[in-house]
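The freezer alarm interrupted the setup, so I double-checked each line after restarting. Inputs confirmed:
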Amino acid sequence: MNTIKAVFDYTFREHVRHKVWLSAALFGLVLLAGGLVASVLAQDERARMMLDLGLAANELIALVMVVFLTVHLILQEIESRAVFLILTHPVRRWHYLLGRFLGTLAAVGLGMAAMGLVHWSLLKLLGWGGDGSYLLAWACSLGKTAVMGSLALLLSLALTSEAAAMSFSVFFWILGHFSGEIRFVAEKSGNSFLRAALLAFSRAAPDFAHFNYRDAWHAGVPGPAWIAAAALYAFGYSAACFALSAQVFEQKEF
Amino acid sequence: MRAPLVCAALGFALAVGVQPALRRGLREPPPLSELPATPFSLQDIALASAGLRAAAADLAWIQLLQYMANSLPEMKDARPYEHVKTLSLRVARLDPSFHRAYLYGASILAFFPEANRPDEAVEILQEGLSRDPGEPLYGVYIAALAYKRRGDADRMIALLEPTLGDPRSPIEMKAIVANLYKARGEYEKALALWNGILDSELEAREWPRARVQVAEIKALMKARRAAPKRQ
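Predicted 3D structure, all chains:
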């Protein structure tokens, strides 16, 4: 446990001092301010637009941060041979990986929290009368970020190419938002084999379309069963991807 | 060595197991194939595929407002308000809970004398009723439209009047009812509605029209007051 915490601490500090993290957080704040100007065009729906654009900007910046940081997380340490130094100590490989992953997630979460706080304040300045469901939308974005982070980690270790891992991460992000469409195509398909294959594929790919409370915000707050399911989904999918990453990392020969 | 694989299997099983509950809990948006074909289809699909459906609906809403202000060069009209239905449904199918898109499109098509396409308005409102249940104004507008078709303006106004103070009601509806009052010679009521629009920062886009109307109505009221004196 101590080794996980030690790795977590140094990873968190490393990321928060990283130029990429700082510029992404700064860019997010600029986007939020830009949203304030652009939302004037929506007239009666200004608060709605400001809310949607702010939550979207927060999530997209978090996606860029988590994919970029996670893909470099282990590969750079392998390349610089720093990983040899760490693993000569009594550190289990999966402890090291978990500390690195959680530290990255915490750093990205901190950036998201800062952007969320600024966004919330801007909305309040506009007279927005929202409630605690903002926190739920933010938490869902964090859940998506955790899933993407674990997926990017798995891809970076399995593919060992930063460019390929980033491309596939973006591919899975888009695919995840098409889960409803994939099921729609499957239901329309007359071929039972194709239908089963598409349904299996839509289940195996991350289901972001139904995790996207941000996009369904205006339809009302979902019940506690959905919130519990969303939390379990994010945990289950991230844990599965992380476990596979640990398996790949264990098998690597240094 | 097998422990990570077992953990991965358990994690995936948990994720797949809760997926049905995840799907049931949120209202599912219509598939992208149901989006009306417009010059902006690529924009809609690109944003939706990045998980930005609500933001795509907001942009579509701005484009609908631009179209109404004749500032959308991509969509030219062969007849007045030709694309209102398409553009309103585009917003609503990107985000089915966008109440104002249904109400705005329907109020223009149903009650603007130059548009006068009540069938299209009813189609929009019916889609609202099925895809965005729980919004009472759709039913009120459909009922008001039925009275309009029967030529029963009194009942139509009586139905619409209480909705004007509702923040979800489009500003255009205030203007429509004010014009109805004006046409019926109820200048005080019309003036009160236009003055209400002029007092509201949120209704700034109707201010130029409101100023013209206030001046016209005041002139009409003055003429009416002067008329008996001349006799």
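Quick read of the result. Chain B touches chain A through 54 residues (CB under 8 Å).
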